[in-house]
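Input (Phage gp6-like head-tail connector protein):
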Amino acid sequence: MSRLGWTEPVVIAPAEDEAITLEAAKEQLTVDFDDDDGSISRLIAAARDHVEQVAGLVVVRKTVTLHCHGFEDFARLPVGPVKEVKAVRYIDPAGGETTLDAAAYETRLDGLRASIVAAPRRGWPAIMPGSRIAVDLVVGFDEAPAAVCQAMLLLIGTWYRNREQVITGTITAELPDSSGFWSLLSNYRLNA
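Output:
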């Protein structure tokens, strides 16, 4: 899903840990045996990925690269929370790749939303027509908010108890929307 003029983030340094530990997920599921640890670990990763996709949010800290077509796209970065801009690279009009001097821009970190603006009395450089600008960012929470973790735990619980696409032998075949999932994420959705 493209957000504004941005490409999807490409992870260049993955997160070291998940936001939810295996122990916390097992406690939520009231599982006291180890046979399902592999399955539960996959559900933790899937829940984080789902939350990140539907909210436009990065739950665990990682480094990503995004591309856009022009500096005007910097008015709103498509992911958050942004912790640091590591580099801005572009193709200059002569065709050479150039890394923008960090003194040429300022990063505005406004909660979950972030932008990059030209430094005072500086403008953006010219780029080769048709080229893209690359931005390397450190994104994600230091510690995921409790509401985001609870939304993930609700998904993990629903998916663990309903491991198949179709439920048979019940009056209702529709899975619940994980009672409160969207409410828990309401303050953390960047792409709403």
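The helical segments are 22-29, 37-55, 146-161, 181-185.
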